[in-house]
Design a protein that fits this description.
Elements lengths: L2 E7 L5 E7 L3 H10 L3 E8 L2 H10 L3 H16 L4 H11 L3 H15 L4 H6 L7 H13 L2 H25 L1 H26 L10 H15 L1 H18 L3 H13 L3 H21 L5 H12 L2 H15 L4 H8 L4 H13 L2 H60 L1
Antiparallel strand pairs: 1-2, 1-3
Length: about 400
């Protein structure tokens, strides 16, 4: 999300400097006007300026959830922001996070707002959190915003944890399958194949298994180099735009997986959109921040069209429907919220519904993976057994014919 650095004159005639998040220059001007300030100079700072440093400095989602929850509890108890930061800094054990909190504490001490202090940490805190806190500062409800941020990041952590937990069994199956197949090709097949006659007289499938076994036994280093090369290539290129675009498209449009992913995305969209929109931000700013949280390049491209249509006077529900990304029920609920003037309430209820649906979707995703991996494992083992049994039946036939 673009960040604007500006100098302005406030209602008292004093010069003020600061930064402000907005989706466009027009929205920036509207926000400054609401604050009763007159802009002298303004400069847009693109997100790309800090993107190279964001990954190195970024605080984990779990840490953000804990920080926001502790902040909310202390603020609601009447403790000042500076005292909250001091307490959080003193009790923090991780060196990296302790250093970041110290920097924020020092910035607030010299007169900066909390949002500006967080923004000065070079990508440690997400733009979504900074923009939410900035909205809370403007409305005087920063304790409420911190509570919403805590709930938001708790939900994000919960979804991530459920996906990781659900993937444990398929990953264990994959490891077992790899070990079983490797054992068969390295230890079992070489011993059995020594009993058979000349290789030229054996069935094609048996010769293939013998060649594969010889390769794994005699040229294992080639496989090792290949595995290391794949790991390095994935590590280097996995975060590049072309690779991410392919992965994002696979998530959305793979048969079976795509529909389940859409449900999880709908839950994430409604939950985030409710948190932002109910905090007093404009619809366009809410959509911009929500799109960044979803973190899918295909979604980002299509949501740009949604925001363009809204700027031209279009409705949110019809624009979302055109993207063909979200479930029809979610789009219908958004339409009801627009017509009734209670979009934030409808988003909250829809988010609660899709949270349950997301849990079911994750379980369905795993239920699809498990039988697929079992079939693959069974197919490989079955091929090995057939390759071994065919020449053995041939040997028995020869023995019976001789007797």
């Amino acid at each position: 999300m673009p960040k604007f650095k500006y100098t302005a004159v406030n209602a008292e005639g004093k010069n003020v400097k600061g930064t402000l998040f907005a989706t466009s220059l027009a929205e920036f001007n509207a926000t400054i006007k609401q604050k009763g300030e007159y802009v002298l100079t303004v400069q847009e700072i693109k997100d790309q300026d800090t993107s190279s440093r964001a990954n190195a400095n970024a605080i984990s989602m779990k840490e953000l959830s804990i920080l926001c929850k502790q902040f909310s509890t202390m603020l609601s108890s009447g403790i000042t922001i500076i005292k909250c930061l001091d307490v959080l800094y003193q009790q923090q054990e991780k060196k990296k996070l302790k250093a970041i909190l110290l920097k924020v504490y020092e910035q607030v001490q010299v007169g900066k707002s909390l949002s500006k202090a967080l923004a000065s940490t070079e990508g440690a805190f997400p733009d979504f959190m900074i923009a939410m806190i900035e909205a809370g500062e403007m409305s005087g409800s920063i304790d409420l915003i911190m509570n919403r941020l805590a709930v938001h990041y708790e939900k994000q952590c919960a979804i991530k944890s459920k996906v990781q937990s659900a993937m444990i069994y398929p990953i264990m199956l994959l490891i077992v399958m790899t070990l079983v197949v490797s054992g068969l090709f390295i230890f079992v097949i070489p011993n059995l194949m020594s009993m058979f006659g000349p290789r030229e007289t054996l069935p094609a499938i048996t010769r293939f298994l013998m060649d594969a076994s010889d390769f794994m036994v005699e040229r294992w280093y080639v496989l090792l180099i290949g595995v290391i090369a794949v790991i390095l290539i994935v590590g280097i290129f996995k975060n590049t735009r072309p690779v991410m675009a392919v992965i994002d498209r696979l998530k959305l449009f793979t048969p079976g997986i795509g529909k389940l992913y859409a449900v999880v995305m709908a839950s994430n969209f409604c939950s985030t959109m409710y948190s932002v929109f109910s905090s007093g931000m404009t619809l366009l700013t809410s959509l911009e921040l929500t799109t960044n949280v979803l973190g899918n390049s295909v979604v980002s491209d299509r949501m740009t069209s949604v925001m363009d249509e809204i700027r031209a006077g279009g409705a949110l529900s019809s624009s979302l429907h055109k993207t063909q990304l979200f479930p029809n029920m979610m789009v219908t609920m958004v339409s009801v919220g627009e017509e009734s003037g209670s979009l934030d309430e409808v988003l909250e209820k829809t988010a609660a519904f899709y949270e349950t649906e997301a849990d079911d979707a994750i379980q369905k995703m795993v239920s699809i993976l498990e039988p697929v991996m079992i079939l693959i494992m069974g197919g490989v083992v079955g091929t090995v057994i057939i390759g071994i049994m065919m020449p053995m039946f041939g040997m028995y036939s020869q023995v019976e014919s001789q007797t």
